[in-house]
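pasting for the record
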Amino acid sequence: MWRPGIAEILIVLVIVLLLFGPGRISKIAKELGASISAFKEGLNGENKENKIEQAAAEEEKKEQ
């Protein structure tokens, strides 16, 4: 399988820099970081909800 080397990565980075400019790249990186953070928070929130539901179901079983 083909793996990019350092030269290919640098060429792609230079092309991206020329197309978008430094200001736009920093804006894109900031938005990407915020999106990843929101995604992780969503996963953690869902996991917490599942644990709470499981604990409630276990308590309900104990009561019966």
